[in-house]
Amino acid sequence: MTSETTQILTRVQVEQKIRRIAFEIYENNFEESEVILAGVSGEGHVLAQRLADVLRQISPLNVKVMKITLDKTTLQQPPVQLDAEETVFTQKSIIVIDDVLNSGRTLAFALQPFLNVPVTKLKVAVIVDRDHKRYPIAADYIGYKLSTTLTEHVLVVLSDEERIGVYMR
């Protein structure tokens, strides 16, 4: 990290947020036999895997993790790719997971594959909610709400064991 980078959440704080979100997911899905955690490729998918690990420790839920692959930079989104067949998540409780909710654009595209399939629940989880919405997307499970300017960049690091945390530049 550069000298202009400020650490917002430490590794311990991030792990606490993940654990709390996992308990909230269990609390809202205790009647379900199975929960699908669909993580947006990158840190969103890593967050989904970490949430799954905690859920398996604290609950009897059958937890499956899947990856949502999309291009976060393009204006016209090609079809979103899932690493599972539709039958895996039909009639299941699904939580779509990303690291940061900023404008809502990425999550709007990430939700698309689940809108044409009957599901019991469809929720959103993020570790950081910046609240700069341009799309009507809200997170149901939030680790940390952070007020920022539009020019500030929030970086969530979960895949680098040495630097796990949330940073702002």
From TrEMBL:
<keyword id="KW-0328">Glycosyltransferase</keyword>
<protein>
    <submittedName>
        <fullName>Phosphoribosyltransferase</fullName>
    </submittedName>
</protein>
<dbReference type="GO" id="GO:0016757">
    <property type="term" value="F:glycosyltransferase activity"/>
</dbReference>
<keyword id="KW-0808">Transferase</keyword>
<dbReference type="InterPro" id="IPR000836">
    <property type="entry name" value="PRTase_dom"/>
</dbReference>
<dbReference type="InterPro" id="IPR050137">
    <property type="entry name" value="PyrR_bifunctional"/>
</dbReference>
<dbReference type="InterPro" id="IPR029057">
    <property type="entry name" value="PRTase-like"/>
</dbReference>
<feature type="domain" description="Phosphoribosyltransferase">
    <location>
        <begin position="5"/>
        <end position="144"/>
    </location>
</feature>
<dbReference type="Pfam" id="PF00156">
    <property type="entry name" value="Pribosyltran"/>
</dbReference>
